[in-house]
Amino acid sequence: MFDDHFEAWVHGPVILRLYAEYADYGFGSIDEKPDVPVFTEDVENVLEQVWDIYGKYSANELESMTHQEDPWINARKGLSPLQKGKNTISDKDIFDYYIKQAG
Description:
The protein is mainly alpha-helical.
């Protein structure tokens, strides 16, 4: 869907480009309508499934969930819990983890 990689920040996975684009909103609602790319039907179906599963959770709940998942944990190895870091979360770790979860 995109070429960016996730970084394992203290509060969870971050895509730096998106963070920079929306950082001015802070904890407020994002009222700007983004340019939405055209996705294939398969990608749209996956995105809908992700929303159906995770869309009901708050930001704090999602943060807590990411802190329990292997891809984020692996990328944060060697860092203390509140230590800033920009370690990349391995695409392979993400793929393997969610394939296992779908199991």
